[in-house]
């Protein structure tokens, strides 16, 4: 059946299937499926349900179920689909502390485009324009971030923000051991542990901008909400610096 479907798709391409853009999408789909079957199927499963052979015994950090169309690491608002660049960032850099590796230069640019095109065929959400949204533009770092003296002054305010908004899950010292975080679950019913900020690497990335993105937009499918619109940019930046201070002090 798979061979027949491939033959039909290629036949459409060869015989003038739609516009050039349509032909490109078909070729990308076919190449993307090949990349997925070689690189991703072991964890994400044959149909992208996150139930691959290597994932069957995992209880934490489950592989993404692409059928759901829910993604943690995005530059778009909660509930919205990620951009192509968001997907490429996750594929290329991986997710620290999980089995998701960094493919980096193991894939050509065309292969990234292809596998992303294939992933979009695994969930119906990609067909509804209402599920798309413009990415949040991460604001530039304030000048005080680059000043050791000014940063130290901001940490006092940031600690108060952290204690009020984050410590219940992440713990007073940011080690992910807060009382409210002991029995957290994601929307799929799997346990979720709050991030341990004392670790060397963070799941969303190791740049200040990566942590800003997570604090501002949250992690879809998890109890981690976004604070964009609830906190000022200045307050979020101060939390970012505070989070990194917890890593540096451990």
What does this structure look like?
This protein has 250 residues and is mostly helical. It contains 9 helices and no strands. It has helices at 2-14, 20-39, 41-44, 84-93, 109-119, 148-165, 167-170, 208-217, 233-248. The termini are far apart. Mean pLDDT is 90; it is low at 11-17.
Mean pLDDT: 90
Major β-sheet profile = none
Helix content: 40-55%
Total strands: the figure is 0
The number of distinct structural domains comes to 2
Shape: globular
Structural key phrases:
250 residues, mainly alpha, Cytochrome Bc1 Complex, Chain D, domain 2, 9 helices, globular
Summary?
The chain is an all-alpha fold and 250 residues long. It contains 9 helices and no strands. Helix 1 runs antiparallel to helix 2 and helix 2 packs across helix 5.
Topology (elements, then pairings):
Elements lengths: L1 H13 L5 H20 L1 H4 L39 H10 L15 H11 L28 H18 L1 H4 L37 H10 L15 H16 L2
